[in-house]
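Complex 506.
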Amino acid sequence: MLFRYLFSTPYITKTCTLNKLNRTLSTLPQLSSEKYGVKRKEFGVLKNDDVKFFQSLISKERVLTDESELLPYNIDWIKNCRGQSKVVLKPKTTEEVSQILKYCNERRLAVCPQGGNTGLVGGSVPVFDEVIINFMLMNKIISVDELSGALVCEAGCILENLDNYARERNLIMPLDLGAKGSCQIGGNISTNAGGIRLLRYGNLQGTVLGVEAVKADGSIIDCLRTLKKDNTGYHLKHLFIGSEGTLGVVTKVAIQCPSLPKSVNLGFFGVESFDSVLQLYKSAKSSLGEILSAFEMADSLSIGTTVKNLKLTNPIGEYPFYVLIETHGSDEEHDSDKLSRFLSREMDSGLIVDGTVTAEETKMKSIWNIRESIAGAALHGGYMFKYDVSVPLRSYYELVHVLRRRLRAVDCKVYGYGHVGDGNIHINVVVPEYSKEVYGLLEPFIFEEVSKHKGSISAEHGVGFRKPQYIHYSKDQTSLQLMRDMKRVMDPNGILNPYKVLPDPS
Ligand code: FAD
Ligand code: 2HG
Ligand code: ZN
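Predicted structure with (2R)-2-hydroxypentanedioic acid bound:
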């Protein structure tokens, strides 16, 4: 029966245990340097005196050197990369960060800034023995202006904590993503993270009002303004938004928080084809207009694998494609009126085959949990190649078909899901274990395909360690040269997150 669950959704809530799952390190990932054949650059090598200096600067407890303690800081979330750092530092203040960087710069010790270590491109873990600067103890909220919505905090604040704090003040954080329980605002800014509501609230380049950052030589750049308008010269904060810790280290953040929506609805729909997904998107934009806050899609394999592996319940049964539509508004009656009209029209048109809509918080959480769990749901069943690209909407899902054809002789699952509203698709290729042959079939092939569509080889996760050699598919040589020039000005010794973002000129 069509829409059997409409406005009354009986299904199970299962909390996400992904973090635990992914941190269970049954087998150690191969060292990144060996797996990807990288040569160590000529940086200084950590000595006992360096450790002593760090201990005297920030106290012994905040300097980790024990090998087993270091392990989780050396391995990334998807267990794709493993570094060999011998020391993790946990500063508590900007001044400490400044002193650490000044020292490392003088000693030519390479550094890897690390937030919540949820990054998906290997940027957050070292490749060799870089000093890890972890921001987890820089977690103070400094101020919030309930009138303007400007929130100021330290870089190590966890996104979910900030959102909870904002909600108590009738505000929300302008970004939301599946890793919110672990990722830090400094990491979000450094990756220019997108997430599920970019469609509505825009990207961090727009919502970040100001940053405080520390340059490689230890000097502190104070751009921590809370003004919406400030055209006084170059917009230096943008140097740090999306530069993945290669131009400086973010220590404080000022961000514009939107008002807490008074009315929220979430729908989860079954759709027969990708073409219907696109038509539904077009219709949702024009019918829901200003209240549309998310439009996400996932194919049947994404949802099927996730509910099966994590023992979740799919509330609507099996369909070739699924769409999540969320509204944020200020008037419950107006919003549900609008939504009902849209839904009955699209059920009649046949674009929506089945679905469930709810305004109840626990049920909304449970639906979002399915969508947000896709990222890691297949991790314990094998090795995952992850791609995060943006292409024109007409070609959005084509890449999944192309890859399935190319990998037809390989034992693998290829599935696609993502932020339709932003033209951003995530493609996961899951194989029983890492294989160089599959890697060779996937890369650079997938990036060549993306560039045929004039797309981006990294829509929202960044370039990190995994993609510098492919950046030219999305950036011309003159732009790359300008990036290198900027890097030279900001970090002449190249100590900040080496082997990341910029391709080796050789
Ligand atoms: P890390 O992973 O620790 O670091 C990421 C990069 O930023 C590294 O290069 C690191 O060196 C640098 N960095 C970290 N902190 C600082 C700092 N203070 N100063 C300078 N550089 C720093 N991403 C999206 O864009 N959208 C999504 O929807 C999304 N969903 C996700 C869902 C899951 C389940 C997971 C695991 C990841 C997801 N991600 C998503 C990727 C990831 O969460 C984001 O990239 C996030 O912004 C990283 O934040 P982090 O604190 O974990 O940073
Ligand atoms: C998401 O949208 C994240 O869920 C993660 O960006 C995507 O798993 C991925 O590749
Ligand atoms: Zn995403």
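Confidence is low (pLDDT under 50) at residues 1-24.
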